[in-house]
Automatic annotation (TrEMBL):
The keyword Aminoacyl-tRNA synthetase does not apply. Keywords: Antioxidant, Disulfide bond, Oxidoreductase, Peroxidase, Redox-active center. One of its GO terms (biological process) is cellular response to oxidative stress. PROSITE patterns: THIOREDOXIN_2. This is Peroxiredoxin. One of its GO terms (molecular function) is thioredoxin peroxidase activity. It comes from the Bacteria. Pfam families: Redoxin. Residues 22-187 form the Thioredoxin domain. GO terms for cellular component: cytoplasm.
């Protein structure tokens, strides 16, 4: 049985394909995304610092992963990444992050299961219509005919992208890397 709680050893690391090079400094479009807490979130209208970690998809324990999932560089590790942001949530808030969100193209009902199962203290956002994905030209890949987001983390300051983590690997270390970045900003 597959464990979703840890990143398996030996996964292929993603390489920087240049698909996120245009994102730094970009102002976000006005797009309301449904969230697991019942609100519609427009990232462009948020004040302060927000962290948005985008991930391909979450699996459900007991259900198989897509064929070849572990061979796709950067695909595996959504649950460990979410758990790391959960575990670093208080530290991120203490370092000046006002908002934390996970983002995928899965619908909100699907996302609610993982948000509840993992006890996430922040909402997950659904871009199931690919509006934000297309507007920002976020890096994507296709599996079994489904367009998914590549793993990327955006630091957003007052509606504009101030920093991009891409590619993200290993995913379970992403939250610590983000925390170190925002702590460095706070010490300037």
């Amino acid at each position: 049985m597959t464990s979703y709680n840890a990143v398996p050893e030996g996964l292929p690391a993603p390489e920087d394909d240049g698909l996120a090079g245009h994102l730094g400094g970009l102002e976000l479009p006005i797009i309301g995304l449904p969230s697991t807490d019942g609100r519609r979130i427009d990232l462009s209208s948020l004040s302060g610092r927000a962290v948005v970690y985008a991930y391909p998809r979450t699996g459900v324990p007991g259900e198989p992963l897509p064929e070849g999932w572990d061979e796709i560089p950067g695909a595996r590790g959504c649950t460990p990444q979410a758990c790391a942001f959960r575990d670093h949530f208080a530290d991120l808030k203490a370092a000046g992050v006002e908002h934390v969100f996970g983002l995928s193209v899965q619908d909100t009902d699907y996302q609610k299961e993982v948000a509840e199962r993992l006890h996430l203290p922040f909402p997950l956002l659904s871009d199931h219509r690919h509006e934000l994905t297309h507007a920002l030209r976020l890096p994507t890949f296709t599996v079994d005919g489904t367009l998914l987001l590549k793993r990327i983390t955006l630091i957003i300051e007052d509606g504009a992208i101030s920093h991009v983590f891409y590619p993200v690997f290993p995913p379970d270390r992403n939250a610590a890397d983000v925390l170190a970045h925002v702590q460095a900003l706070a010490s300037r």
